[in-house]
Each structure stands twice: as C-alpha cells, then as structure tokens.
Amino acid sequence: MRGRRKASAGPLPQRDGIDAVRVRLPEDPEGRWSSVGAYLVDRFGGAIGGERVAAMLDAGRFVGADGGAVRGGEPYTVGLSLWFHRDFAAEEPVPFPIGIVYRDAHLVVADKPHFLATTPRGRHITETAVARLRRELGVPALQPAHRLDRLTAGLVLFVVRPEERGAYQTLFRDRLVSKEYEAVAPYDPELELPRTVRSRIVKERGVLAAREEPGEANSESRVELVEARGGLGRYRLVPATGRTHQLRVHMNALGVPIVHDPLYPVVEPEAEGAVEDFSRPLQLLARRLEFTDPVSGEPRRFESGLRLSAWPEG
C-alpha cells in the first residue's frame, strides 16, 4: 500500500507491545488530494474502510510529529509524517510462558514456547514473542535478531538497543551462529545415520508447505540419532543453512517426519484453521545457540531449558 511505512514509535507510545504505524505523505504531481483526510481515505480505505478512517480522524487517532491530532480537513502537505495505531482482531492467547534464559543490558535470550510467533504477522500480532516480552520486561525497543518458526519452541535472541541490532543480525546472516535443534520423530532402524542432507527447498508465498525440487541445493542439515525407544527416536539436528521449514522438510524426506507436524508429510485440516490444538505441539526445539558476541567479543553459549513432551525424561 503506497504511502505506508514501517511501524515507528514516533510520538505515540506502544500499544500492547506494538509500535504505531507511520505514514509519510508522498508527492502528488496530479493534485489528487486536497486534504490529509482525502489521502488517508483513498490509500487506507480499502484495508480499514473509508468510514472507519474518517471516524479515526474525527477521534484524533492520527497524530503528527508533535503528538497533536491531525484532522481530516487539514491541507495536504508533501512529506508530512503521521502516526496511528491499528485496531487488532481478538487473538487466542498462547497459554505458555516465555522463559528468560539470559538477560543483560544488550541481550535477552528467550525460550519461546510452541505456537507463539516471533514477530507480528498475519493474524498473530499482539500474541507474539516480541510483543509479549516488550510488555512483560518493560523494554519497548526490544527487537529479535532472528526468527524462529511459530510452531517451533526454543531459543530466540533479542536485542535491547536498536543501534546494536544490525551487528547481531549479521551473525545470523553470515552463518556465524552455531545452532542445534532437537526433534522427536519415528525411529527407522534401516535409516543410516548420522548423515548430511542437502536439497533445493522452495517456499511459495501463500502456500503453507515448502517443497523440494530438482536443482542446485540451497539447504543443508546434519541429522543424528541420539537415542531410540518405543518406536520413536530423539534426533540432533544441526542446520548449516536457514531455509523456511528446512529441518521439517529434511526429516520428512528421510521418511521420519517430526511428531505432530501439521504440514509434513501432508497438510492437515487444522494447519489452515484459526483454532490451535495446544495439546499437540510440533516436537521440534531450538536447543542451543553459540557465537562470539559482536559487541563484547565474548564467547556466548545458551541452552534451552525446555523439553519435548513426546520424549519425557526418565
């Protein structure tokens, strides 16, 4: 949607851990918009509704850089920045806490539970790890350095200071972080392990499941069997790359799909629905992160305190 920019706190405080949306009025060579309200209704009316946009203007919900309300009748001014908060649909709370593995002035390392998205996307906005941690810790500037799939539990690294986020993101981009996962999946005594799996994975926008196809490999995972009992195996997974659903795709390709995976080997009906079955979490856990801290230069190693329910200890 033209004219819309990334969320920015600006003059409005966060609401439910979510920044306000910033809008910058663009050039108007054709003179289409005589007023701020005309532009906002034109550009956001399709998503929000023209009457709703007008009502928000009347209520003073669009503000300028000084925090003062901007009314719909104000003259159109190229470059003017406005902020507003979106209205969010009700979300089903994820009934699991976020564990804090480590926290200092620079980092928060969290144990994200199953079913909780890392960042706002789609129908998951306020019920996300970053929004909940901002509220619970009182750190409004908190941002993730990487993302963990919504159905996967385990370690996520968050950055406290915005100016340091790029340094930590670069670690993940340049594959300078050693990551280890744990999974529970069927045990196949004829499957030769350990092995390294390489394949070409394609994930299309709007399609739930990724797929493998012929071509140059763009993904690599090391798969090891740790132990087996009762027809199940506990596996150690070490990804060298970070394609969407990579570990899930590779385990499925080996004939041992991860327990409670709603997408592989087939897309189950609940995968497309809005109602979660919290009793069947995907048995995949981000177990370990290890790297050299780009700010302090110190070696860092973090381990999850979570356990996979399909593999009780003892």
Automatic annotation (TrEMBL):
Residues 106-253 form the Pseudouridine synthase RsuA/RluA-like domain. SUPFAM superfamilies: Pseudouridine synthase (SSF55120). It catalyses: a uridine in RNA = a pseudouridine in RNA. InterPro entries: PsdUridine_synth_cat_dom_sf, PsdUridine_synth_RluA-like_CS, PsdUridine_synth_RsuA/RluA, RluA_PseudoU_synthase. Gene3D superfamilies: Pseudouridine synthase (3.30.2350.10). It comes from the Bacteria. PANTHER family: MITOCHONDRIAL RNA PSEUDOURIDINE SYNTHASE (PTHR21600), PSEUDOURIDINE SYNTHASE RSUA_RLUA-LIKE DOMAIN-CONTAINING PROTEIN (PTHR21600:SF84). This is RNA pseudouridylate synthase. It comes from Streptomyces cyaneofuscatus.
